Amino acid sequence: MCVSQIEITSVRSLNSSVTLVSNQVAGIKPEREAFTVRRSTIFSCLFVLLTSLEVSIGQAQSKEVDRLKSSATVLNEIMATPDKSIPTDLLTKCACVAVIPSMKKGGFIFGGRYGRGVVSCRKNGGTGEWGPPSMIGLTGGSFGLLIGGAAVDVVMLVMDLNGINSLIKNEFTLGGDASVAAGPVGRASTAETDAYMKAKILSYSRSQGVFAGLELKGAVLKQDRDANQRLYGKIVGAKDLLLEASQPIPQPAEGFIQVLNKHSPVRNRKAS
Question: pTM to 2 decimals?
Answer without folding.
Answer: 0.72
